[in-house]
Design brief:
Elements lengths: L1 H24 L7 H20 L4 H23 L3 H9 L5 H12 L3 H41 L1
Helix pairs in contact: 1-2, 1-4, 2-3, 2-4, 3-4, 3-6, 5-6
Length: about 150
């Protein structure tokens, strides 16, 4: 039990640092770095818990990126900051960079079967990120239109 708790704390800390660090790298406003780090951390821990619980990585990525998008929309409105500040930093922990690196390394080493397998996984995970962000935005638009209709009537 103690080992699991240490692993979760390590995942929380490193994902927060990764998201906030990319906020610094992208010159995000200093006042938004904590929020961006928290969004990235929450998105990653959802992904981590889902995969650890037995879910496939692609649907876990879709759900985690949806969470990142929803939290980014909330923070953008509350802190009156462009949503891109939170989405870019928050989605960084979900980007399959390590798998992409392994795919390219296998291409260079002429292990084409493994390289193609990893490349396909990278494409699926990247598509999952895009689908999650898009679905969250579409849902947000639908909800806002429904609320606007109810307010008018």
């Amino acid at each position: 039990m103690e080992g699991v708790l240490v692993m979760i704390i390590a995942q929380l800390a490193t994902s927060f640092v990764a998201a906030a660090g990319f906020g610094v790298l992208f010159n995000s406003p200093k006042k938004s770095l904590i929020q961006a780090g928290l969004i990235g951390m929450l998105g990653w821990i959802l992904y981590y818990m889902l995969v650890d619980g037995g879910m496939d990585a692609v649907p876990a990525t879709v759900l985690a990126s949806m969470l990142v998008a929803v939290l980014s929309q909330i923070c953008a409105r509350y802190f009156r900051t462009p949503i891109i500040v939170f989405i870019v930093s928050g989605i960084i922990p979900l980007v399959p960079g390590g798998i992409a690196y392994d795919a390219m390394r296998n291409f260079v080493q002429n292990d084409y079967f493994t390289a193609v397998e990893l490349s396909a996984k990278v494409m699926l995970l990247s598509g999952g990120i895009a689908i999650g962000l898009m679905f969250s935005e579409v849902a947000n638009q639908i909800i806002r239109k429904q609320l606007k209709k109810r307010m008018e009537s």
